[in-house]
Design a protein that fits this description.
The protein is mostly beta strands. A hairpin with a 6-residue loop joins strand 4 and strand 5. Strands 2, 4, 5, 6, 9, 10 and 11 form a seven-stranded mixed sheet that branches. It has a four-stranded antiparallel sheet with strand order 1-3-8-7, with no helix packed on it. It has no helices and eleven strands. The relative contact order is 0.32. The radius of gyration is 14 Å and the shape is globular.
Length: about 120
């Protein structure tokens, strides 16, 4: 099992910045894929950014150039630095760990942290 705890959400004005952090504990592995999803009200959860150890990070097109994901395997943390925030970035953001086990997808989720971009 993996436990994930997010922090860093809040209210920010358009154009502002926020940094989300996630600490993983339990059976976290360096081979795990770590990332961030978000879910806006009335919408499906979507992948925002993802990083595998040794691979390039992946970003959803609307956040490319504005968000940066970073991972520290020594500390079992993953962060999401968000710049130039827009109202459409408003959502609950979830930290995620994904791995393949015996051909099946295994996902672990944090409790979520609210990000609200509004003037």
């Amino acid at each position: 099992q993996v436990q994930l705890v997010e922090s860093g959400g809040g209210l920010v004005q358009p154009g502002g910045s926020l940094r989300l952090s996630c600490v993983a504990s339990g059976d976290i592995r360096s081979s795990d894929v770590m990332g961030w999803y978000r879910q806006a009200a009335g919408s499906q959860r979507e992948l925002v950014a993802q990083e595998s150890s040794g691979d390039s990070a992946w970003y959803e097109s609307s956040v490319k150039g504005r968000f940066t994901i970073s991972r520290d395997n020594a500390k079992n943390t993953v962060s999401l630095q968000m710049f130039s925030l827009k109202p459409e970035d408003t959502a609950v953001y979830y930290c995620n760990v994904w791995r393949r086990v015996s051909g099946s997808n295994v996902n672990y989720w944090g409790q979520g942290t609210q990000v609200t971009v509004s003037s």
